[in-house]
Predict the structure.
Amino acid sequence: MMNSIKDKAAELGEPAEQPGILALQLGDFLPHRLNVLSSLVSQALTQVYGQYGIGIPEWRVLVSLGQFGIMTGKAIGSRTHMHKTKVSRAVAQLEHRKFLVRRTNRSDLREAFLSLTPAGRAIYDELAPRALEFTARLSEAVAPEDRAAFHRAVQQLTERSAKLVADMDKKALDTKDLDTKALDTKDLDKKVVS
Protein backbone atom coordinates (compact mmCIF):
# COMPACT_ATOMS: atom_id res chain seq x y z
CA MET A 1 0.00 0.00 0.00
CA MET A 2 2.77 2.45 0.94
CA ASN A 3 4.58 1.93 -2.37
CA SER A 4 1.40 2.55 -4.34
CA ILE A 5 0.90 5.91 -2.56
CA LYS A 6 4.51 6.90 -3.32
CA ASP A 7 4.16 5.72 -6.94
CA LYS A 8 0.93 7.68 -7.41
CA ALA A 9 2.48 10.81 -5.87
CA ALA A 10 5.49 10.46 -8.16
CA GLU A 11 3.21 10.13 -11.20
CA LEU A 12 1.35 13.29 -10.25
CA GLY A 13 4.50 15.18 -9.36
CA GLU A 14 3.20 15.64 -5.84
CA PRO A 15 5.23 15.18 -2.68
CA ALA A 16 4.70 11.88 -0.87
CA GLU A 17 3.78 12.67 2.71
CA GLN A 18 5.68 10.90 5.44
CA PRO A 19 4.47 11.75 8.93
CA GLY A 20 7.12 13.15 11.24
CA ILE A 21 9.68 13.73 8.46
CA LEU A 22 10.45 17.23 7.27
CA ALA A 23 10.46 17.09 3.48
CA LEU A 24 13.01 19.04 1.49
CA GLN A 25 11.15 21.04 -1.14
CA LEU A 26 13.55 21.48 -4.06
CA GLY A 27 11.62 24.48 -5.37
CA ASP A 28 12.15 26.28 -2.03
CA PHE A 29 15.75 25.09 -1.50
CA LEU A 30 17.93 28.21 -1.76
CA PRO A 31 20.98 26.55 -3.41
CA HIS A 32 18.70 25.05 -6.08
CA ARG A 33 16.91 28.35 -6.66
CA LEU A 34 20.23 30.19 -7.04
CA ASN A 35 21.49 27.52 -9.43
CA VAL A 36 18.33 27.76 -11.56
CA LEU A 37 18.63 31.56 -11.60
CA SER A 38 22.30 31.37 -12.60
CA SER A 39 21.55 28.88 -15.36
CA LEU A 40 18.70 30.94 -16.78
CA VAL A 41 20.67 34.19 -16.67
CA SER A 42 23.65 32.51 -18.37
CA GLN A 43 21.40 31.09 -21.09
CA ALA A 44 19.76 34.48 -21.67
CA LEU A 45 23.15 36.23 -21.70
CA THR A 46 24.24 34.14 -24.68
CA GLN A 47 22.13 36.50 -26.80
CA VAL A 48 24.83 39.11 -26.10
CA TYR A 49 27.87 37.08 -27.21
CA GLY A 50 26.47 34.01 -28.98
CA GLN A 51 26.99 35.30 -32.51
CA TYR A 52 30.76 35.02 -31.97
CA GLY A 53 30.51 31.29 -31.30
CA ILE A 54 31.92 31.49 -27.79
CA GLY A 55 30.54 29.88 -24.68
CA ILE A 56 30.28 30.96 -21.06
CA PRO A 57 33.93 30.15 -20.13
CA GLU A 58 35.30 32.01 -23.16
CA TRP A 59 32.99 34.94 -22.39
CA ARG A 60 34.31 35.13 -18.82
CA VAL A 61 37.94 35.05 -19.98
CA LEU A 62 37.28 37.67 -22.68
CA VAL A 63 35.52 40.02 -20.24
CA SER A 64 38.19 39.53 -17.56
CA LEU A 65 40.94 40.47 -19.99
CA GLY A 66 38.86 43.34 -21.33
CA GLN A 67 38.46 44.67 -17.81
CA PHE A 68 41.95 44.07 -16.42
CA GLY A 69 44.20 44.03 -19.51
CA ILE A 70 46.89 41.46 -18.73
CA MET A 71 46.23 38.49 -16.48
CA THR A 72 47.40 34.93 -15.85
CA GLY A 73 45.08 31.97 -16.24
CA LYS A 74 45.30 31.41 -12.50
CA ALA A 75 44.15 34.99 -11.81
CA ILE A 76 41.25 34.57 -14.23
CA GLY A 77 40.23 31.31 -12.53
CA SER A 78 40.35 32.97 -9.14
CA ARG A 79 38.26 35.97 -10.24
CA THR A 80 35.67 33.94 -12.16
CA HIS A 81 35.58 30.87 -9.88
CA MET A 82 36.31 28.60 -12.84
CA HIS A 83 38.42 25.46 -12.53
CA LYS A 84 41.88 25.73 -14.09
CA THR A 85 41.08 23.15 -16.79
CA LYS A 86 38.02 25.13 -17.88
CA VAL A 87 40.09 28.33 -17.99
CA SER A 88 42.82 26.54 -19.96
CA ARG A 89 40.33 25.25 -22.56
CA ALA A 90 38.70 28.67 -22.91
CA VAL A 91 42.12 30.34 -23.31
CA ALA A 92 43.11 27.77 -25.96
CA GLN A 93 39.90 28.37 -27.91
CA LEU A 94 40.24 32.17 -27.74
CA GLU A 95 43.90 31.91 -28.74
CA HIS A 96 42.99 29.65 -31.67
CA ARG A 97 40.42 32.23 -32.79
CA LYS A 98 43.10 34.94 -32.44
CA PHE A 99 41.14 36.82 -29.75
CA LEU A 100 43.98 36.62 -27.21
CA VAL A 101 47.71 36.08 -27.06
CA ARG A 102 49.86 34.52 -24.40
CA ARG A 103 53.36 35.53 -23.43
CA THR A 104 55.51 33.32 -21.25
CA ASN A 105 56.35 34.70 -17.83
CA ARG A 106 60.16 34.72 -17.83
CA SER A 107 60.20 34.61 -14.02
CA ASP A 108 57.99 31.50 -13.93
CA LEU A 109 57.92 29.46 -17.13
CA ARG A 110 54.90 27.51 -15.88
CA GLU A 111 52.60 30.48 -16.35
CA ALA A 112 51.78 32.88 -19.14
CA PHE A 113 50.51 36.43 -19.33
CA LEU A 114 47.30 36.66 -21.34
CA SER A 115 45.95 39.72 -23.14
CA LEU A 116 43.42 40.49 -25.84
CA THR A 117 44.51 40.92 -29.44
CA PRO A 118 43.10 43.90 -31.36
CA ALA A 119 40.37 41.55 -32.66
CA GLY A 120 39.58 40.41 -29.10
CA ARG A 121 39.54 44.01 -27.86
CA ALA A 122 37.16 44.99 -30.69
CA ILE A 123 34.76 42.20 -29.66
CA TYR A 124 34.97 43.25 -26.01
CA ASP A 125 34.35 46.90 -26.92
CA GLU A 126 31.31 45.89 -28.97
CA LEU A 127 29.87 43.48 -26.40
CA ALA A 128 30.49 45.40 -23.15
CA PRO A 129 27.73 47.99 -23.76
CA ARG A 130 25.32 45.23 -24.82
CA ALA A 131 26.15 43.27 -21.65
CA LEU A 132 25.50 46.37 -19.52
CA GLU A 133 22.18 46.88 -21.33
CA PHE A 134 21.31 43.23 -20.61
CA THR A 135 22.09 43.83 -16.92
CA ALA A 136 19.84 46.89 -16.87
CA ARG A 137 16.96 44.94 -18.44
CA LEU A 138 17.45 42.05 -16.02
CA SER A 139 17.59 44.44 -13.05
CA GLU A 140 14.17 45.83 -13.96
CA ALA A 141 12.73 42.75 -12.23
CA VAL A 142 13.80 44.26 -8.90
CA ALA A 143 12.12 47.49 -7.85
CA PRO A 144 14.58 50.43 -7.82
CA GLU A 145 14.12 50.93 -4.08
CA ASP A 146 14.96 47.23 -3.45
CA ARG A 147 18.11 47.06 -5.60
CA ALA A 148 20.58 48.18 -2.92
CA ALA A 149 19.21 45.53 -0.54
CA PHE A 150 19.30 42.93 -3.32
CA HIS A 151 22.96 43.72 -4.11
CA ARG A 152 23.83 43.53 -0.39
CA ALA A 153 22.08 40.16 -0.11
CA VAL A 154 23.92 38.79 -3.16
CA GLN A 155 27.24 40.05 -1.73
CA GLN A 156 26.50 38.51 1.67
CA LEU A 157 25.50 35.17 0.12
CA THR A 158 28.67 35.21 -2.00
CA GLU A 159 30.88 35.94 1.01
CA ARG A 160 29.11 33.31 3.13
CA SER A 161 29.44 30.70 0.39
CA ALA A 162 33.15 31.48 0.01
CA LYS A 163 33.60 31.05 3.76
CA LEU A 164 31.76 27.71 3.70
CA VAL A 165 34.04 26.51 0.87
CA ALA A 166 37.15 27.71 2.75
CA ASP A 167 35.96 25.94 5.93
CA MET A 168 35.32 22.78 3.92
CA ASP A 169 38.79 22.98 2.33
CA LYS A 170 40.39 23.53 5.75
CA LYS A 171 38.52 20.57 7.20
CA ALA A 172 39.63 18.39 4.28
CA LEU A 173 43.23 19.52 4.79
CA ASP A 174 43.03 18.81 8.54
CA THR A 175 41.63 15.35 7.81
CA LYS A 176 44.42 14.71 5.30
CA ASP A 177 47.02 15.81 7.88
CA LEU A 178 45.50 13.44 10.45
CA ASP A 179 45.54 10.59 7.93
CA THR A 180 49.19 11.34 7.10
CA LYS A 181 50.12 11.42 10.79
CA ALA A 182 48.31 8.11 11.34
CA LEU A 183 50.26 6.54 8.47
CA ASP A 184 53.52 7.96 9.84
CA THR A 185 52.70 6.45 13.26
CA LYS A 186 52.00 3.04 11.68
CA ASP A 187 55.32 3.21 9.81
CA LEU A 188 57.10 4.11 13.06
CA ASP A 189 55.38 1.21 14.86
CA LYS A 190 56.54 -1.19 12.13
CA LYS A 191 60.12 0.04 12.45
CA VAL A 192 60.05 -0.31 16.25
CA VAL A 193 58.67 -3.86 15.99
CA SER A 194 61.25 -4.84 13.36
In short: Residues 163 and 169 are 10 Å apart (CA to CA). The domain at 24-141 is CATH 1.10.10.10 (Arc Repressor Mutant, subunit A).
